[in-house]
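== Sequence, structure tokens ==
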Amino acid sequence: MSRKDTKELLTICMVYFSIYFCAYMIVPDEFEHGSIIYSITFYFLELTPILAILFAIHIYFSLKKESTNWEKVWRDRGFLTSPKDDAYESDFSDFITNYYSSEQFKNRLSDVWETAMYSIGIILLILTGIAQYVFNIDLSLNPENLISPLIFGEILIFSFGIFLSVVLCSLCKLLTNRYPGEARRARKANPYYLLFPNGDSRDI
């Protein structure tokens, strides 16, 4: 994913959550339960988890498609040795050692970023469970109060978790040109499988 795509992605997320916040805060106070706008807003908010999941799936396949041409991926990152060069693999091993060195701030940031994302994920999971419990209680007491903080807490936390993961991942890529934890995993991997994840298919 290019830096331009990442910036566009962050913009889309910010716009969507701005609309979500306005709909959530304004509609319940300005429109009665059962009105058309109230109903449209309810379904818009209720569909947010589905949209979040589809959004995450789209990002996943975009990244997967991006990584099919590994020769181009590494060339864009600064590895310029020709695949036909006898020293191609040994040069790549040296390149990877330096590129993902723990001495580089970008790599340390990538490692810390992954740990932070795991921690945030656990916190959001706990909050989602609490919101589900409160949701069941509040829904039984207020069946007509569809757009309420308690009822939509679970939906908001779940959707926010998905969007936040994508945004944080994209932001890490934008700042470091590495995904969260990429440097740590690369240091543990065999350079050959980083260079040829699908096998050596060079036509030499």
User: Anything to note?
Assistant: The CA atoms of residues 62 and 103 lie 31 Å apart.
